[in-house]
Design a protein that fits this description.
The protein folds into 2 domains: about 110 residues, Response regulator (Rossmann fold), CATH 3.40.50; about 60 residues, no CATH class. The chain is built from 8 helices and 7 strands; from the N terminus they run E-H-E-H-H-E-H-E-H-E-E-E-H-H-H. Strands 3-2-4-5 form a 4-stranded parallel sheet, sandwiched between helices. Strands 1-6-7 form a 3-stranded antiparallel sheet. Strand 4, helix 5 and strand 5 form a beta-alpha-beta unit. The protein binds iron/sulfur cluster (2 copies). One iron/sulfur cluster binds next to helix 7.
Length: about 220
């Protein structure tokens, strides 16, 4: 799940400047689940923009706003209505996919915040920072890069108090979670194993994956 939050509306309005005619592109996938880019949020945005004197010529909701072919197909209908700009109600990837496939400016209504786990409807937790060099096999399936405020991969900083992180006491110390999990798994030997330096060459931006090449 790609988790996004709404940008403050003033930021979007500042980006739109003097634009008077827009189309909205939402997303039926993650952005709908996060309640930032589904049908309801798009209709609310339409109502707001129109109250500010901006005409909304159309709304489209691709099944996935980050899917190039779906976006190309769905954009045709709204582009025919000649909007001056598009407001993307999806994540950063969705917004860029729309921008790549139209010839008017595209403005993001949301901030994309993390790759998350869905606890239940509307509740998400950050789980992975897409480091490209996964260490979960050594840490009991708990990501030290995401769950430790200092991204420490070789044990704790020592600042925890009562099992809570010294940086944000609302969070458990990731390394205590990792220790307890490894203990439960009978794998405490992993606690004393030093992790190799992260191989940052596996994660040079921007990345692409082509599963068709892999299958050859
Ligand atoms: S180590 Fe953490 S940030 Fe890196 S890929 Fe694995 S879960 Fe994601
Ligand atoms: S207290 Fe724990 S989670 Fe917080 S920064 Fe230190 S090791 Fe990381």
């Amino acid at each position: 799940m790609i988790v996004s939050k709404k940008k403050p509306i003033e930021e979007l309005m500042a980006m739109l400047g003097g634009v008077k005619k827009v189309a909205l592109v939402g997303c039926k996938s993650c952005a709908s689940a996060c309640a930032v880019g589904g049908e309801k949020e798009c209709n609310e945005m339409k109502e707001y923009l129109e109250s500010q004197g901006i005409e909304v010529v159309g709304i489209v909701l691709p099944d996935e706003s980050c899917h190039k072919m779906l976006v190309r197909k769905d954009l045709k209908a709204v582009m025919a209505l000649q909007p001056e700009a598009i407001v993307s109600m999806a994540c950063g990837s969705g917004c860029q996919t729309v921008a790549e496939n139209c010839k008017v400016p595209v403005y993001p209504a949301n901030n994309t915040v993390f790759v998350g786990q869905t606890e239940r409807v509307g509740i998400f937790h950050e789980m992975c920072r897409t480091c490209g060099d996964c260490v979960l096999g050594e840490t009991g399936g708990i990501c030290p890069i995401t769950k430790c405020a200092k991204c420490l991969v070789n044990g704790p900083c020592g600042g925890q108090k009562g099992g809570k992180c010294e940086v944000d006491p609302n969070n458990d110390c990731a390394w205590i979670l990792i220790y307890n999990k490894l203990k439960e798994l009978g794998k405490l030997d992993k606690m004393v194993k030093t992790q190799d330096d992260k191989d940052n060459s596996t994660h040079l931006w921007p990345m692409s994956v082509n599963t068709r090449e892999v299958k050859k």
